[in-house]
Amino acid sequence: MRSAYLLLIPTLLLLLAFPVSRGRYNDDFDDGEDLADFDDNDFAEFEDMNDELAAETETAPPPRANPSSQPEEDEDEDEATVELEDGQDGFEDSDNPDQDIYSKYDQEEFEGIGDMEKTGHSMKDPLIIHTVPAHLQNSWESYYMEILMVTGLLAYIMNYIIGKNKNSRLAQAWFNSHRELLESNFALVGDDGTSKEAVSTGKLNQENEHIYNLWCSGRVCCEGMLIQLKFLKRQDLLNVLARMMRPVCDQVQIKVTLNDEDMDTFVFAVGTKKAMARLQKEMQDLSEFCGDKPKSGAKFGLPDSLTILSEMGEVTDGVMDNKMVHYITNHADKIESIHFSDQFSGPKVMQEEGQPLKLPETKKTLLFTFNVPGMGNTSPKDMDALLPLMNMVIYSIDKVKKLRLNREGKQKADRNRARVEENFLKQTHAQRQEAAQTRREEKKRAEKERIMNEEDPERQRRLEEAAQRREQKKIEKKQMKMKQIKVKAM
């Protein structure tokens, strides 16, 4: 009885375990079964599995995501969500809640994590605001260079307008004060040269902002007179600043061209010491015909500041009469130079080597250079002071026409001109020989090229023989000249 009871107990345990194991491991439930029939203790095994998975997650790195297994992972996440209802505490780290998640992983496998941690910590540091340097601040002091440039540009523009207008007023003031005298002595005043027929315009011709020209013609014994008003460059700011250090004055230059028969052969000049020294060095006629040093004009009562250059004493006595001396003495401070010459060719011209020099063309000319009063601070009223000097110019034209040298003076002047021409030919003899030799060589070269380019051999031979005969004739001609010279020498 007792043994039967012992056998009954294992049998009951097997019967009880069979349906339980069937419901636990069977994936397909019957139609009549309900999930609610299962006891909550049946999920205790899954809870143990979740605890093991959480422990493995803390020690192992997260696996890489696989696109093919994305649906399965979504299902696992849904199941995990259900399971977390009873086991949420297993996923929280209550000991170190602020620990960085990257500290759990292998530092060698994930590079750059340390730099990210440092960057994260550096962002927590307080901001340091530095003071902006003075030269980078947005203030007027940062634009001092631009301000200076704009100021200088405005000053230059204003000075240009003011200086140009002042020169124009001075020129007009001079013309207004001299117009009546010029129109009474010349038939044409103010020809600009644009029309074919000479027309009197009655106004100045402006060459630029500081130079004005006036052409006059139609008078006895002169071809014409060119008046040039050379004012200071008041429109140029740099020139204005330079004149503060070295003052200069405005000038009026007058050039009178005489007819060939209305002036005798002589060269004469009078002016300041500095001007005479400069003209004697630069002008071709004064350097050749007035080789002596400038002489003092005290003999004629001229101031000590003026000196005289003259080709011969007779010319000085003829030019410096009482009226001329009166003009020069009373206006010595305004006279820069007075130059009379029948051999005027302008400044010396240095021609290039290898070119034959020719005698320069000369004109019988009277040159006057007057200084405007004021030393740069000229006013329109100062132009009236130059009117007596224009009267002196008109008187000089008539004076030179009447002046005639005596026989001895004429011969001396002719000898001086012959001497100058002979010296000129001697100086240019070597250059003329070189030029002649060059021309002969070029002619021979051209003739040889013409013979070589001849296609007919017979014609080429005849040309060569003709060239040889010409060369032989030239040699014989030179020998005949040498024999004649020897006979004459005997």
What does this protein structure show overall?
This protein starts with a helix and ends with a helix. The protein is of the alpha+beta class and 490 residues long. Helix 5 packs across helix 11. A hairpin with a 4-residue loop joins strand 3 and strand 4. Helices cover 50% and strands 12% of the residues. Strands 1, 2, 3, 4, 5, 6, 7, 8, 9 and 10 form a ten-stranded antiparallel β-sheet that branches.
Defining traits:
490 residues; alpha+beta; 10-stranded antiparallel beta sheet; 10 strands; flat
Structural class: alpha+beta
Q: What do the pLDDT scores average to?
A: 75
Quaternary form: single chain
Sequence stretches where pLDDT stays below 50 over 5 or more residues: 20-40, 57-95
Beta-strand percent range? 5-15%
Helix fraction, binned, reads 40-55%
User: Helix count, per DSSP?
Assistant: 13
The SSE string, one letter per element, is: HHHHHEEEEHEEHHEEHHEEHHH
Distance between the termini: 196 Å
Give the strand tally. 10
Question: Biggest sheet: strands, sense, closure?
Answer: 10 strands, antiparallel
Outline, from the CA principal axes?
flat
Cα-atom radius of gyration: 59 Å
Summarize the structure.
This protein is α+β, with helices and mostly antiparallel strands. It is built from 13 helices and 10 strands.
SSE map:
Blueprint: H1 2-25, H2 44-59, H3 70-87, H4 113-122, H5 144-185, E1 188-189, E2 205-206, E3 211-217, E4 222-230, H6 237-245, E5 251-258, E6 267-272, H7 273-282, H8 284-289, E7 295-296, E8 306-310, H9 313-319, H10 322-330, E9 335-344, E10 363-371, H11 387-402, H12 407-452, H13 457-489
Antiparallel strand pairs: 1-3, 2-3, 3-4, 4-5, 5-10, 6-8, 6-9, 7-8, 9-10
